[in-house]
Design brief:
Layout: H1 2-21, H2 26-44, H3 69-82, H4 85-104, H5 131-139, H6 146-161, H7 165-169, E1 176-177, E2 182-186, E3 197-201, H8 204-219, H9 241-254, H10 263-275, H11 280-287, H12 292-299, H13 303-314
Antiparallel strand pairs: 1-2, 2-3
């Protein structure tokens, strides 16, 4: 079994090199590799399928050429039972991409996932942040210390621009234009396309928070040594995506709100934009979405609330 795993490991490492050369995002690469490694472990020693699944047991696999459609189906059912349909969908899509790469590299003749569909899931509504929650959160960063000034600027930027976590964090000082009130970011790459840059606008309160942070950053011992916009308080190095997530978790717990994920700000921004009557096309430009389906996806968050608000304004009965 050890030799078999080494074979899979070698192929997965080669695939990782291909993904990096194609400029896939770090998040995409992690997800894909996680899927391929889980699939490889499953192939070496397939557990018995759930009794009520209707899936027959599959034999262990010694080589990628022996992978069948039944293996892909059984693995997907296994992941649904082990985790959730949403997680299993992600795993299936990762495995599908790995198998496609094996075909391109002529390791196999045809993808065993060909003709199979990913598990269907309903996108859960991501909870938006209320005005009260946002005010509580901002109270935790009302001080004038370096960490408070940094965290306040970052939190307001997330809320005020709808930028992704990585877009906000992986920035340099030169990416901030306080005169134009925009931050230059690189969008998410995907589908073989290179990441595209865009200028994301922000309001006066965010501009003021960024200005205060930048002045504090200029006085920081490592301010001149580093180009990165955000500096880690303890590491004295550029703040990482992981570090930004942790600082938000810490601030949200201080506020008594439980754990808040940075992506909730993107949903909250979209919700507040639409509630205020913002144009969907402008929302797409700001967020970097290329498909209107993304507006629909993000609009699900608190969609019922917006519908009720619109009804208060447009109620046929009230207009009689």
């Amino acid at each position: 079994m050890g030799d078999n795993r080494r074979l899979f490991t070698t192929l997965i490492r080669s695939w990782e090199l291909s993904l990096r050369s194609n400029n896939k995002s770090a998040e995409t690469i992690r997800s894909y590799l996680r899927s391929a490694n889980l699939f490889a472990d499953y192939l070496i020693d397939p557990p018995a399928p759930p009794k009520d699944s209707g899936i027959a047991p599959v034999p262990p696999v010694d080589d990628v050429v022996d992978i069948t459609k039944a293996h892909v189906q059984a693995f997907t059912v296994h992941e649904i039972a082990r985790t959730t349909a949403s997680s299993a969908r992600s795993r299936f899509l990762g495995v599908q991409q790995w198998l496609k790469w094996l075909v391109i590299e002529e390791e196999i003749d045809r993808s065993p996932a060909e003709g199979l569909s990913a598990p269907q899931t309903e996108d859960p509504e991501v909870p938006i942040l209320t005005t009260e929650q946002l005010q509580q959160l901002l109270k935790t960063v009302a001080g004038k210390g370096f960490a408070e000034l940094r965290d306040r600027a970052l939190i307001l930027l997330w809320l005020d621009s709808g930028v992704r976590l990585s877009e906000a964090v992986n920035r340099t000082v030169d990416d901030v234009d306080l005169d134009m009130q925009v931050m230059h970011v690189m969008g998410k790459a995907g589908g073989g396309r290179a990441a595209r840059g865009r200028a994301v606008p922000f309001g006066m309160k965010t501009a003021q928070a960024l200005d205060r942070y930048l002045r504090a950053r200029a006085r920081h011992p490592d301010g001149k040594r580093l180009d990165a916009l955000w500096i880690g308080q303890k590491t004295k190095k550029p703040l990482t995506v992981s570090g930004a997530g942790k600082l938000l978790a810490r601030r949200s717990e201080e506020a008594g709100l439980g754990r808040i994920h940075p992506h909730q700000f993107r949903h909250t921004f979209s919700h507040m934009w639409l509630v205020a009557g913002g144009n969907e096309t402008d929302l797409m430009r700001i967020t970097g979405w290329k498909s209107r389906s993304m507006v629909d996806r993000y609009a699900r968050s608190a969609g019922s609330e917006r519908a009720r608000e619109q009804h208060r304004k447009l109620s046929p009965g009230d207009r009689l």
